[in-house]
Specification:
The protein is α/β, with parallel strands linked by helices. It has helices at 16-26, 38-45, 65-74, 92-101, 113-169, 176-191, 203-212, 225-228, 236-259, 265-276, 297-312, 323-332, 340-348, 350-359, and strands at residues 8-12, 31-35, 53-57, 83-87, 105-108. The chain folds into 2 domains: 4-140, Rossmann fold, CATH 3.40.50.2300; 170-359, Orthogonal Bundle (Hypothetical protein af1432), CATH 1.10.3210.
Length: 368
């Protein structure tokens, strides 16, 4: 806290005699500034050293104390400075008017020096306490924000680590998780004003959705290498095994949820995405054959992002398809594989998704 000598008091009174009396009383203890009119007081109040307390005469020409007080409160730079009204009006109605206006005290003239000093001291002590609490609250808020940012970073790094773990089992995916995360976030941002999705796709949901997206194929860690890394088409039996990765992923995330002491918001969406991102709008997908709006929005968004990236990416059994051909394939899936409105939005911003793909492109394999 500042020491008493560093505290500043602004005295506002149109009478030079009153200014002299108050200045002589207060100057041995405080730094005193003076103004003989309301306009001068308003100018001084915003210049350094800023007052910690204002002693404001009520009866002044041109601009009375109440008008000065209103302008002090209207200015963000001065609204928190405590004001004591000092006036010759000693009737109860005037005092109530001053206190109701928001003044911290009301002192009548003639001044009684010990009472004036005591009341000034009390208000300055309260001001110091308020300033200290404000500074402490500011520090605590900054610390909380810092800790939250650290927790967010740890969470994101942990998610990426788990996603990369799954990726090591399926090395051909490359930057797949970065690209699909980018597609999902961008698509959700484009959809948030759509009447069908606006109530769900708020800023927080989109943040959690993008954070969850890298875990969509986490269940692949449970698929045998002979199936997962087979350089060619899968047999019906192998395809049945491959399709279990959706259920395996959601079960793994659900176990993590149970182990958590508190609810972790993004895990709910991560579980939805992992479980249902292979469902299709017409009900022909897996693992549950959900159709239409029964498929969670998160999974519907992930579905189109995942298919788009699979089509443009190189695999041991296929070359990457050109964007124009992929655009045609996505359009053909409208109302069959994909939600029609999500498809329309994706196609309307198709170049944006191509740019995300280019930004996180896989390294070109060495021909040797």
């Amino acid at each position: 806290m500042p020491d008493i000598a560093s505290q500043t008091i602004l005295i506002v009174d149109d009478s030079p005699e009153n200014l002299t009396v108050l200045s002589e009383l207060l100057q041995p203890i405080y730094l005193v500034r003076a103004a003989t009119s309301g306009q001068k007081a308003l100018r001084i109040a915003v210049t350094a050293p800023r007052p910690d307390l204002i002693l404001l005469d009520v009866m002044m020409p041109e601009m009375d104390g109440y008008q000065v007080f209103e302008q002090l409160r209207a200015n963000p730079a001065t609204r928190d400075i405590p004001v004591i009204f000092v006036t010759a009006m000693d009737h109860i109605e005037a005092e109530l008017h001053g206190l109701n206006a928001g003044a911290v005290d009301y002192i009548t003239k003639p001044i009684v020096p010990p009472i004036m000093l005591a009341r000034v001291h009390t208000q300055l002590e309260l001001k110091r306490a308020r300033d200290w609490l404000r500074d402490q609250n500011g520090y605590l808020e900054a610390e909380i924000a810092k800790r939250m940012a650290e927790n967010e970073l740890i969470q994101e790094v942990s998610i990426r680590a788990l996603a990369h773990l799954a990726e090591t089992r399926d090395p051909e995916t490359g930057n797949h998780i970065l690209r699909t995360q980018g597609y999902v976030q961008q698509l959700a941002l484009e959809l948030r004003t759509h009447p069908r999705f606006a109530s769900t796709l708020n800023d927080r949901y989109i943040q959690l959705l993008a954070r969850s997206a890298p875990l969509h194929d986490i269940g692949k860690v449970g698929i045998p290498d002979a199936v997962l890394q087979k350089p060619g088409p899968l047999t019906p039996e192998e395809w049945s095994i491959m399709k279990t990765h959706a259920q395996l992923g959601s079960e793994a995330i659900e176990l993590a949820e149970r182990d958590a002491a508190e609810t972790v918001e993004f895990l709910f969406l991560a579980k939805e995405i992992a479980h249902w991102h292979h469902e299709k709008w017409d009900g022909s997908g897996y693992p549950d054959g959900l159709a239409g709006d029964a498929i969670p929005i998160s999974a519907r968004i992930m579905a189109i992002a995942d298919v788009f990236d699979a089509l443009i990416s190189r695999r041991v059994y296929k070359k990457p398809l050109p964007y124009a051909e992929v655009q045609t394939i996505i359009a053909a899936g409208r109302g069959k594989h994909f939600d029609p409105d999500i498809t329309d939005t994706f196609l309307a911003h198709f170049k944006v998704f191509c740019a995300i793909a280019d930004r996180h492109g896989d390294p070109v394999p060495d021909p040797g």
